[in-house]
């Protein structure tokens, strides 16, 4: 069994995004980037499936500028067997949207005869939460979004426990399938220095969207990107009595 | 416009977010058709037919729709769209809508638009990026717009005043060959649901343990509030994930949000900063949560919360 994992390079989770003065987007130059946290979880799950013997090969894929190769090296150091970089640069990368990314993954899943495609449930930059579901639709494979648990059942099925609004849901999917990782699926490991060194020798291939025959033209135009309205800071109260008094007189609280 | 709203329900009751989604749909102008797909959709379809602004209800009944798995629901939506093409297909941005909306879009070769907070015109929508630190206005160039709606950004449509016709069918398009619904383990609670609660009491890592969350539950029960939590509290195993509020959890906007032992990480603020009144209780006066709080109390939560519990009037 072969698994493909999508790993996106995003602005680090600890950085507060700043909107560009010309309102065309968010400042990303000179800002620390890392692997999207939910993709790290998906990758960890893929590696664990390999360690359990259920999976033979884990392939990490990232679409974007050359710097994505750093993200892929991290994936290799964590335990992916090989990596594929799909180069998309400059203006084309600024407007690269989940539908186009899903088309790239569809082609790669077919070309590499993958049985399972894993993604993080959501990238913390565009907050779209779409790529896994789109890829499932394009491949006509079943999907398990927001996975909290994933187990391979006898080689032809996976059982997925999903995080849903009211609790948990268990479903079974026939393989091949697409699954997206939620917070509690697996805790990502840190790569050891030895594995970081070893990762440098692992194969990292390049496939352009043109070579894959995928049209990445955007379908959505961004007209403007603006700062959110600022919430004005309130006041500090001295004690619990002061808090209750303010809530009752100014916030209409009846308790 | 001619909009298809996909109703969310549990087989018996319409999920509240569907009403907010109908309001978002009404801002597109034109007709609103609501699809109720399910193993026994009749009761929910009757409820929806009375909602103000709904022009038509399509109830699709099929045993394979139990659990509303994507592989079952998406073909039903595509079939309805083939029969009478819509300009827009929308659903609430709950786990249900987030799961199926992009899948439907993929089948139609359309770029979906997630979690909109505003409708500017038939093809132009407002949504947030980067945990709410940027607000984008985006225009779809696709023939059909496939959209999920942040329910807290729109008022609920009136549950009465409508009299839409219900058209029933049993659709053969349901695909049962790819996935199986095994079951659900829903959290049973007498507290209000997070999405619908007027008051939310929310705890962070400073609660220090699963057991200590009892302080919050006791306080919440006294004032009739829902309980929420930060991602950090979920990761630490203090509470289950369905309580998580934030960028990648639930987005809430209650009348009163009480952040207790919460530092105010960017991703948490994304889920609650549209609340009407925000209270923060934290012993660290420098905690970023105080920058968005209307009323801040710098005090140890283990002292302040029991005191609050003892001084509020029980509901």
UniProtKB/TrEMBL annotation, chain A:
One of the GO BP terms on file: fatty acid beta-oxidation using acyl-CoA dehydrogenase
UniProt xrefs under SUPFAM superfamilies: Adenine nucleotide alpha hydrolases-like
Keyword Isomerase: no
An example Gene Ontology CC term for this record: mitochondrial matrix
UniProt keyword annotations, A-Z: Electron transport, Mitochondrion, Transport
Any Pfam family matching the protein: ETF
Highest rank taxon of the organism: Eukaryota
GO molecular function, one term: electron transfer activity
Keyword check for Ribonucleoprotein: no
Location within or outside the cell: Mitochondrion matrix
Similarity remark: Belongs to the ETF beta-subunit/FixA family.
Subunit relationships: Heterodimer of an alpha and a beta subunit.
This protein's name: Electron transfer flavoprotein subunit beta
Annotated organism of origin: Capsaspora owczarzaki (strain ATCC 30864)
